[in-house]
Specification:
- Strand 2 and strand 3 form a beta hairpin.
- The longest helix has 17 residues.
- Strands 1-8-5-10-4-3-2 form a 7-stranded antiparallel sheet.
- Helix content is 53%, strand content 13%.
- The protein has 20 helices and 10 strands.
């Protein structure tokens, strides 16, 4: 299309905008370029054509136009804002932050800019700055649902469940049909032990969107944990149908079939998963447990002999255990903002909610460094092993950590950590033993705590670190001391 020479630049620009609004983007783009040939400094034409490239996901081209636009008009908040969006898409978070901050300086009371700046701070791990942005956005506009939701996510991740619940409820008050928020609120209720409310939230999310896979998974998992295995199976299968690659749902279905004690269907599903080349701790655990339960040995893709891969270390020998680890844990336990989650597996004790290593209110960096050093030592110790979990060691992983505090008579029942690759525990305080195995950690193949075989009892003391494949189940032996037994548990989770 050639420009009509009788039209002014503004008239041509207006026709381009009209075509743009009508979805005729190819025509609009050509007209914008015609305008720019005559006036290369037409900032609005630059910005509009950049929007077209953003919608085409050609972020590099869009970036070029926005950078030219801000060069011409350094007071264009919307250009800096959109440039920030582009850098975020390109995962250049520091540049995105710089653009959002420039946009904020130009328009300090723009709630959208504040909300997106908060998202960038969260991506950079600066949770307190993210909180500040979300709170400022809410102060500007109390009905900013996105800011309320994102603030709730930060509270949830840091274990402040009651605050997260308030945020999510506010979002639903603003927009009752926010499926993701109903699902997230369900997770909060589940961690708080309010199971009926959790079910209602998941069902509401499914009612809003019948193809919402995450809600089917969460409801299926909740039903599984409640022992309603047949109902759980239906929801988990639906979750897999909607999201075939959802490894969480696949693992949960496998565990659910094992609990249903239907050997033929279980083995059919297990063989199918193994033949697809999938490998994780749950698959490894079900292979090991099925061998004990049914007497059928299968080649275990994760770890055939997990009890041979249990290591215990004394952290007192190399690290300042008391001042680095114990002091940090005691500060966390004294903080009233950290919620405890309902944990059916614990008798006479509680577990902190959320991931302590994601909570920026506490400096756990030194503890994380120690854990990562010991994880690497573990890998090197077993580097010549042919077991799948060693041969396929994750190149990238996250740490998820929580505290367990138990009183006299406290115990933890047999369980495993489904999402982990390698699991561990640091013993912050182990009371003096009144009996030989009092308070010991027991790692085992199956959940029968009364069996004497297929398990290993570990004599833990204050300062002990234990590392073991996440496919192993584990439990603790009750203790009688008046002192609290405090443990920092953690998982190494592959960053898929």
């Amino acid at each position: 299309m050639s420009i009509n020479k009788s039209l002014t630049i503004q008239e041509t620009f207006n026709i381009a905008v009209k075509n743009h609004q009508e979805g005729k983007t190819d025509v609009a783009k050509e007209l914008y370029n015609q305008v720019l040939k005559i006036d290369p400094n037409h900032s609005q034409a630059l910005k509009n054509i950049a929007v077209i490239f953003i919608n085409l996901k050609d972020y590099q081209k869009a970036k070029e136009y926005y950078e030219k636009a801000v060069e011409i008009d350094p007071n264009s908040a919307d250009a800096y804002y959109n440039l920030g969006i582009i850098f975020k898409e390109l995962k250049e978070y520091q540049k995105a932050k710089s653009c959002y901050e420039k946009a904020d300086n130009i328009q300090p009371n723009n709630t959208i800019i504040q909300t997106n700046l908060g998202i960038i701070f969260k991506d950079l791990g600066e949770n307190q700055k993210a909180k500040d942005c979300y709170e400022k956005a809410i102060k500007i506009n109390s009905n900013n649902a996105k800011a309320h939701y994102n603030l709730g996510v930060i509270y949830k991740d840091s274990g402040e469940l009651q605050k997260a619940k308030i945020c999510y409820k506010k979002v639903i008050e603003i927009n009752p049909n926010e499926q993701e928020t109903h699902n997230s609120l369900g997770i909060i209720f589940q961690e708080l032990g309010e199971y009926q409310k959790a079910k209602n939230c998941y069902k509401k999310a499914i009612e809003i969107n019948p193809n919402y896979g995450d809600a089917y998974y969460n409801l299926g998992q909740l039903l599984h944990e409640s022992g309603e295995y047949h109902l759980a199976e239906n929801y988990l299968k639906k979750a897999i149908q909607i999201k075939p690659g959802d490894i969480r749902a696949s693992n949960s279905l496998l565990t659910n079939l094992y609990k249903m004690n239907n050997q033929s269907i279980l083995f059919e599903e297990l063989d199918s998963i193994i033949n697809e080349g999938k490998m994780n701790a749950v698959i490894g655990s079900i292979c090991s447990r099925s061998e004990v339960k049914y007497g059928v040995k299968k080649e275990n893709p994760f770890c055939n002999n997990p009890l041979d891969y249990v290591l215990q270390k004394n952290l007192n020998e190399k690290y300042d255990f008391k001042n680095v680890i114990v002091k940090c844990v005691n500060n966390i336990l004294k903080d009233d903002s950290i919620s405890s989650r309902v944990q059916k597996l614990i008798t006479n004790g509680y577990q902190t909610a959320g991931n302590l290593f994601a909570n920026r209110d506490f400096d756990t960096n030194e503890i994380q460094k120690i854990i990562k050093i010991e994880i690497e030592k573990y890998r090197l110790y077993f580097k010549d092993s042919k077991e799948g979990f060693i041969k396929n060691w994750p190149t990238n992983y996250n740490l998820n950590g929580w505290l367990i505090s138990m009183k006299k008579g406290g115990k933890l029942s047999a369980h495993m950590h489904d999402l982990g690759w390698l699991s561990g525990s640091i013993y912050i305080n182990v009371p003096q033993k009144s009996e030989l195995e009092s308070g010991n950690l027991v790692v085992c193949i199956d959940e029968n705590e009364n069996k004497n075989e297929n398990k290993k009892s570990i004599d833990v003391v204050t300062g002990s670190l234990c590392l073991f494949p996440s496919s192993l189940l584990h439990y603790t032996i009750p203790f009688k001391s008046e002192e609290n037994r405090i443990v920092l548990a953690f998982d190494m989770i592959p960053n898929l």
